[in-house]
Amino acid sequence: MRCFLMIYLVKITISLKEGMLDPEAAAIRQALANLGYPTLDLKTARQFTVRFDAANGEEAREQAAAMCDRLLANPIIHRYEIEVRE
Amino acid sequence: MRFAVVQFGGSNCDRDAVSVLSTLCGVDTDLVWYKDRLRKPYDAVIIPGGFSYGDYLRAGAIAARTAIMEDVASMAARGGLVLGICNGAQILAEAGMVPGTFTMNAYPKFICRKVHIRVETTQSPFTSLYRKGEAIAIPIAHQEGRYVAPLADVQKLERDSRIAFRFCSPEGDVGQGWNPNGSLGSITGVLNEAGNVLAMMPHPERASEEILGSDQGKRIFMSMVRHVEAGA
């Protein structure tokens, strides 16, 4: 059986789990307030954009999740979201 | 008896550790470049402080996934001693060799100063030469040193006496006023389940000679030496 590979563009967003202290966000929020932009809430996240070959979208998503579990995220403090595009 | 100090690109406390071990503790110590792997049967391995891989991604994250860490893990599985100091502690946590993780300080700045830590257990190969509850003077130098772990893990650490050190006052009192980075429970040193792996943020290699302001960290290395001698 032949296997056709597609190129997928995957966006991975890593952020702190709910309730985790985010000292950087607190400092940025304070700085915004000093500039006259009071905010009710501010969260930071880190985004990775990766391109790789996969047989289908589901496989691409699984591969991205494995990347998060094994390196990109630390399960103790992080959650991640994966967006797959062809 | 032979110890190794692993050197990653960006390690910067590697030579200090070698110097303390070989000159002050009298241990034959090899400085091992991480690509050279662990090729000898070492009694103990020290993962030193620094900024391996520029702290990219998360402090210790990339070094934790290098091949030499597989050697370190199998050496630990055979009962060898592993001590991770500062960036070394972050690497051990990222490698899953101790529970929890060390992340951005509560006040997100680099802190470099002398603090005090309380010895929480003397039932470990790293702390047997201390008195339980003793407060020792030792420097910290980190930005990502705030200990975080799931509550269940911390309760298990407490139950098993696997918390090695907590930040404290010079008199040994533990409290938020003495917790420089916001660590959970002021914890700054944790042991693995078998007790032969210790991850700690403070720098005992910078507190092993009176001329550097404190020699109270030296007993960590001497405890390791004693442990190895007892097993020989």
How would you describe this protein?
The complex is a heterodimer of chains A (86) and B (232). Chain A is of the alpha+beta class and 86 residues long. Chain A has helices at 23-34, 57-72; strands at residues 6-16, 45-54, 78-85. Chain A is elongated, with a radius of gyration of 17 Å. Chain B is α/β, with parallel strands linked by helices. In chain B, α1 (14-24) links the parallel β1 and β2 (28-33). The model of chain B has no long low-confidence stretch (mean pLDDT 97).
**Which ranges of chain A are low-confidence, i.e. pLDDT below 50, for 5 or more consecutive residues?**
none
Distance between the termini of chain A: 22 Å
Q: Kindly state the number of beta strands of chain A.
A: 3
Biggest sheet record of chain B: 9 strands, mixed
- Briefly note the structural class of the backbone of chain B: alpha/beta
Short account of what is shown:
The complex is a heterodimer of chains A (86) and B (232). Chain A is an alpha+beta fold.
Please give a handful of descriptors for the protein shown.
heterodimer; A: alpha+beta; three-stranded antiparallel β-sheet; 2 helices; 3 strands; 33% helix; B: alpha/beta
Write the layout of secondary structure elements.
The complex is a heterodimer of chains A (86) and B (232).
Chain A: E1 6-16, H1 23-34, E2 45-54, H2 57-72, E3 78-85
Antiparallel strand pairs in A: 1-2, 1-3
Chain B: E1 2-7, H1 14-24, E2 28-33, E3 44-47, H2 67-77, E4 81-85, H3 87-94, E5 101-103, E6 111-119, E7 135-142, E8 146-148, H4 151-159, E9 163-168, E10 187-191, E11 197-200, H5 218-231
Parallel strand pairs in B: 1-2, 1-3, 3-4, 4-11
Antiparallel strand pairs in B: 5-8, 6-7, 6-9, 9-10, 10-11
